[in-house]
Amino acid sequence: MTTDQGRVRRWLAAPSPVQPEAVTADADRRALRWEIVLVLAVTFGTSGVRAALRLLESATTPTKLNKQTTTLNAEKSSLAWLDPLFQLISSGVLLAWGGLAVFLLLRHVPVWLAGISPLRPSRRDVLPGAGLAALIGLPGLVFYVVAVQLNLSKQVMASGLDSSVGDVLLLVINAWANGFAEEIIVVAWLVSRLRQLQVPWVWVFVASSVLRGSYHLYQGYSAGLGNIVMGLVFVFFFWRTGKVWPLVIAHGLIDTVAFVGYQLLGGVPGL
C-alpha cells in the first residue's frame, strides 16, 4: 500500500460527526432503499439520466460541442407578465425537493435526535460557506473557459432573461433554490441514508459526487467532471464537520455570482 493510499484509508476511518445510527431492522432497511429510489426518481436521479441523454444527443450532431450553447435560466413564456410566475414555480419545485428531503430525514427513520442536527442553520456557517464558494468558484471558471477551448463543453449562457431588477431578483431566488435543493438532497439526505444502510464511506463519496456530476452533463463532459470534483470536496466537508448549511451558502453564492454576473456583463458566452 502506498503512502497516499494509507493516508486516504486513515481519513475514511477517522471519526466523523455524520454517524447516524445504523438501521438493522429488515423493514426499515427496505423502507430506506425504496425511499432512495423514489426520491432520486422524482429529483436529481431522473435529471441525471436526462442530462446524459442530452449530452449524447449533442455529441452525435455535426456541430462541435463548443459551438453549441445551453441556457441555464431560459424564458419560460413569451408573455412578459407570465414568465416570472413560471420562474417562481421552477424555484418553488427545487425548494419543495429540498424540503421533502428534510422532512424525510426528520420523520421517516429519523437520523438526528435530541435537537442535534446539521439541518439547523447558524451565523457561523456564513464564513466557511463563503470560503468554499471562493475555493470552488474561481478555479471552476478557469476550468470552464479551458474546457470550451478544448471542445469539452458547450458555451453556457447563465441567463436568457432581461437585466431588469425583477429578472435579476428571479435569478437570485433560483440560485439559492438550486443551492438548497442540491446540497440538502445530494449531500445531507443521500449521505445520511447511505450511512444508515452501512454503506462504506468510500462508496458514499462516489455515489454523491457522481450523482452531482450526472445532472450537469447536458452542459458538456467537463461539467460532469468538474461537478464530480466539487461533489468530492463538499462531501469531504460534510464528513469532517457534519454541517450542510455552509454548502448551501457556498452553492447559492456561486450560482448568484454566475447568474447575476452574466446579466450585468451583458451576456458573454464562453465566459
Automatic annotation (TrEMBL):
Determine if Chaperone is one of this entry's keywords: no
- InterPro entries registered for this protein in UniProt: Rce1/LyrA-like_dom
Against Pfam families, the record matches this protein to: Rce1-like (PF02517)
What domain of life does the UniProt record list for this protein's source? Bacteria
**Keyword Protease found:** yes
Entry keywords, A to Z: Hydrolase, Membrane, Protease, Transmembrane, Transmembrane helix
Molecular function GO labels: endopeptidase activity
Q: Which residues cross the membrane?
A: 36-56, 85-106, 126-148, 168-191, 198-215, 221-239, 244-265
Protein name (record): CAAX protease self-immunity
**GO BP:** CAAX-box protein maturation; proteolysis
CAAX prenyl protease 2/Lysostaphin resistance protein A-like domain mapped to chain residues: 167-256
Q: What is the originating organism of this protein?
A: Corynebacterium variabile
